[in-house]
Amino acid sequence: MKKTELRQIQKQRLQAYVGSDREADELALRQQLFATTQWAEAEVVAVVLSTPMELNTTPIIAAAWASGKQVVVPKIVAKQMRFVAISPQTEFATGALNIQEPLHDEAFSSKQIDLVIVPGLAYTLSGQRLGFGAGYYDRFLSDYQGHTVALALQPQLLATLPIEPHDQLVEQVLTGF
């Protein structure tokens, strides 16, 4: 199956995954994340501002701040992804990919990011990832030296994915089930 077809299927599966099973899955994934050494040791965590079909990252951001961690989120500027720091006072607007982004665009050095929670539509346990198709994370991860983790909701975990040479692996894929 081609990536474009699989992306459509995965979006439909995620949009249909609602209710108490999903809530329990998300809670289990957050608990697993918070128990990792990577989370415990990270001072700077990169995470997306989730859309309704994605795993809700608001509790992750709140937990990071409560633990004294710096949170950075992606922002698309001139067709390039950069990470910018956010705080509880940060103001947001809908950005290039219909995702919430901070109004400011002061880039945060990727060398200072300890942990990237990598978004995607599907993952394998070996770290393969199907992204949303723009290539932003593959380009970023090709040069990133820190830790990466993905939080795979039940419909996101697949046995195999169509992989291309430019696709970057995620260091650790957590599953809530």
UniProtKB/TrEMBL annotation:
GO molecular function: 5-formyltetrahydrofolate cyclo-ligase activity
Keyword terms, alphabetized: ATP-binding, Ligase, Magnesium, Metal-binding, Nucleotide-binding
Recorded catalytic activity of this chain's protein: (6S)-5-formyl-5,6,7,8-tetrahydrofolate + ATP = (6R)-5,10-methenyltetrahydrofolate + ADP + phosphate
Domain of life: Bacteria
Protein family per UniProt: Belongs to the 5-formyltetrahydrofolate cyclo-ligase family.
InterPro entries noted in UniProt: FTHF_cligase, FTHF_cligase-like_sf, NagB/RpiA_transferase-like
EC supergroup of this enzyme: ligase
Cofactors required: Mg(2+)
UniProt organism field: Leuconostoc holzapfelii
Name of the protein: 5-formyltetrahydrofolate cyclo-ligase
Enzyme Commission code: 6.3.3.2
